[in-house]
Specification:
Elements (H helix, E strand, L loop, with lengths): L1 H15 L3 E2 L6 E2 L11 E14 L2 E15 L4 E14 L4 E15 L4 E13 L11 E18 L2 E10 L21 E9 L2
Antiparallel strand pairs: 1-2, 3-4, 3-10, 4-5, 5-6, 6-7, 7-8, 8-9, 9-10
């Protein structure tokens, strides 16, 4: 019930903040309505690379997750993203990949602080120890919500840091090993990336 109420709250916030009132005419207007579709787009993403060690065996991790957003008005935007993750080790003779996409929305409280809600679906693997199809490809949904911080690093380029909570927390989530407080902690992740033109 708590999850349903939260989703309804996010949707109501998105609808209610989508209009402005003109002081001259008293009509509701959108200051961005005169911009072209292209001028209302922004883009960005994350790229991560890491080499970890498991009992002296190197494990390689690579992630890329580009996105494109559309500014509905000055504060509210929606967008689409893609994700690809590769994890492997030649010495341990294993490799696998995770891929998928997401839809998201953002509401800017200030130029620096914003709320973020995202529904992501990834083709990962069945990790349920009670399943008869363990380690077989599985479709894994995640619903993230949280806050982000924008830091301008020059022109229209921003460094973004987000803290997000996964309200679904699937046993097959590929993020479980990367939760901020460990695999047994709350399903909170952080992201650091770049955006252009948000």
């Amino acid at each position: 019930m708590r999850k349903i109420l939260f989703i309804l709250f996010i949707l109501s916030v998105q609808v209610s903040f989508g209009q402005y009132t003109s002081e001259e005419s008293g009509e509701k207007t959108n200051p961005l309505s005169k911009l072209s579709f292209k001028d209302r787009l922004y883009t960005g993403g994350n790229v991560a690379f890491n080499i970890a060690s498991d009992r002296g065996i190197p494990i390689y991790f690579f992630e890329t997750s580009p996105f494109v957003g559309y500014k509905v008005d000055q504060k509210f935007s929606v967008g689409l993203g893609a994700k690809y993750i590769y994890i492997g080790s030649k010495q341990a003779n294993f490799k696998y990949s995770v891929y998928g996409g997401n839809i998201f929305s953002r509401y800017k409280f200030t130029e620096s602080l914003y709320a973020h809600a995202e529904f992501e679906v990834l083709r990962a693997y069945n990790l349920d120890p009670n399943s008869t199809s363990q380690n077989v490809r599985a479709t894994v949904p995640m619903f993230f919500a949280g806050a982000g911080y924008n830091y301008s690093i020059g022109g229209a380029v921003n460094l973004q840091i987000m803290l997000l909570y996964d309200f679904i927390n699937s046993i097959n989530s590929p993020y479980q090993g990367n939760f901020m407080f460990g695999a047994l902690g709350p399903p909170i992740i952080y992201r650091i990336g770049i955006s252009i033109g948000m």
